[in-house]
Design brief:
CATH superfamily: Cupredoxins -  blue copper proteins
Helix content: 10-25%
Strand order of the largest sheet: 2-1-4-8-6
CATH topology: Immunoglobulin-like
Order of helices and strands: HEEEEEEEEEE
Strand content: 35-45%
Radius of gyration: 21 Å
CATH class: Mainly Beta
CATH architecture: Sandwich
Shape: globular
Number of helices: 1
Length: 139
């Protein structure tokens, strides 16, 4: 076998070995209704990607909020600020996404620190009506 071919094959083998291994993604499905989450307690591993899919089966808009949590790689599929927030008056949340009635949206994130964090719907009156839950991040 010519020396060039051997070198090319050796380089290809080295490059194949350099490919990173992707961390497994925890996938969670959640349904929001009037006025509850279908899964009020969600457990995810710290340091691993999470994809949360929320379907809004309710008659009005619902969201998913965690006020303070140390997260990275946050991406939401919703189209922008929720309608229930007045322009310029939306609070800053570490995790927040929403779905209009009948829609399904996704939120991707990686929680960095173990702990128990309150989830709630920030639409006016929904939290008070019991639309709350918890996200438990474990080692």
């Amino acid at each position: 076998m010519p020396q060039k071919t051997i070198i090319i094959l050796a380089l290809a083998a080295l490059l194949a070995g350099c490919g990173g291994t992707a961390q497994p993604t925890t996938e969670i499905s959640l349904e929001a209704s009037d006025f509850a989450y279908s899964t009020p307690s969600i457990t995810v591993p710290a340091g691993q990607p999470v994809t949360l899919t929320m379907h809004n089966a309710g008659a009005v808009e619902h969201d998913f909020v965690i006020e303070k949590i140390n997260v990275t790689d946050v991406q939401a599929s919703d189209s922008g600020p929720a309608a229930h927030h007045q322009v310029g008056h939306a609070p800053e949340y570490d995790l927040h996404f929403f779905a209009k009635s009948g829609e399904t949206e996704t939120l991707e994130f990686t929680a960095l620190e173990p702990g128990t964090y309150q989830i709630f719907c920030s639409v006016e009156g929904h939290k008070e009506a019991g639309m709350i839950g918890e996200l438990i991040v474990v080692e």
